Amino acid sequence: MSQKIRVLIVDDSALVRQLLAKGLGMDPEIEVVGTASDPYVARDKIVQLKPDVMTLDVEMPRMDGVDFLRRLMPQYPIPVLMVSSLTQRGKQITLDALDAGAVDFVAKPSTDLARGLAGMLQDLRAKVKQTSKANVSHWKNKQVVRSAPSARAPQGALAESTDKVIAIGASTGGTEAIRQMVTQFPVSMPGVVIVQHMPAGFTKMFSDRLNQLCAMEVKEAENGDRIMPGRILVSPGGLHMRVIRSGGIYQVKCEAGENVSGHCPSVDVLMNSVAQHVGSNAIGVMLTGMGSDGAAGMLAMRQAGARNLAQDEATSVVFGMPKVAYERGGAERLLPLDRIAPAVIDLLSERKS
């Protein structure tokens, strides 16, 4: 029998600690080894108990969860799963936490804790297992950079082209990977479309955050938005995003639908549409994430003439989606995260010459 996943629960509410411990304890593969009411108690218990995963509330006395992560991760990297409420303020804080090193998050029921609790605990158990496999070693001794706006100035002599589309897919660990990648893009890059597995609401906050950091304009996609140079469109949570061609331009179509490959939005839906409507004028990128969403769509893109890359295991938080995309033949190469943006720019230069 494999070793149980050791979990430390950090929450200022005794009731929540009790509910989470009971809910996690229902899974024979998980063992709750301790609980803590604030980051100071948690810090001591991390050293003492050496948990595999820590669940972390974001709004706590003495020190909030985000500040705790910023201090903890460079010294003692540990896979962290945020457990937060879906409030407007909570969305901002949760994104801050992902920037500071958290692997993923689970939403607490926003009104009545009893209602929706079973579903939330089921989600929690699944994500604890996913989070336990995350590679967070790259946070060791890392300086966490706080968000700071950057000037929208061209960063290279890349010719504008309306007939190129860059499609990016990501899941667990993707918010940080996407940020690192697209902040390297100059304002003259062709249009970019992104599916990051996130619930509705979070994608707007994520897009707004990227917009502050990138040379390109970043926005949560709306139905009919044009894909154009200098613009990045992020699929809204809860809606599938497809690329369509209308005359001489590319646009996105955002609409509700059933989960595809387990997700809505789905990377497969996006990339299959890119294969169909953009073909050899596309470049695909698969970043860190659990599962296999996007592997079929990326293969369709490559078969249609697109050039595709995927993130390597060493720099992925979870080497799931990139691994499957590469193994199935959709991705041509596996590259470290910091080399993907330059490689995309090189591919664009090849296509111009």
Describe this structure in words.
The protein has 353 residues and is of the alpha/beta class. The protein folds into 2 domains: 5-139, 3-Layer(aba) Sandwich (Rossmann fold), CATH 3.40.50; 165-352, Rossmann fold (3-Layer(aba) Sandwich), CATH 3.40.50.180. Helix content is 35%, strand content 22%. It has 11 helices and 15 strands. It has helices at 14-25, 39-49, 65-72, 88-99, 117-132, 174-182, 202-213, 267-277, 295-303, 321-327, 337-352; strands at residues 5-10, 30-36, 53-56, 80-85, 104-108, 165-170, 191-196, 217-220, 226-227, 231-234, 240-246, 249-255, 282-286, 307-311, 333-335. The strands form 3 sheets. Strands 8-10-7-6-13-14-15 form a 7-stranded parallel sheet, sandwiched between helices. It has a 5-stranded parallel sheet with strand order 2-1-3-4-5, with helices on both faces. A 3-stranded antiparallel sheet has the order 9-12-11. Helix 3 (65-72) packs parallel to helix 4. The radius of gyration is 20 Å and the shape is elongated. The relative contact order is 0.10. This is Protein-glutamate methylesterase/protein-glutamine glutaminase. Residues 6-123 form the Response regulatory domain. Keywords: Chemotaxis, Cytoplasm, Hydrolase, Phosphoprotein. Its EC number is 3.1.1.61, 3.5.1.44. The active site is at residues 171, 197, 293.
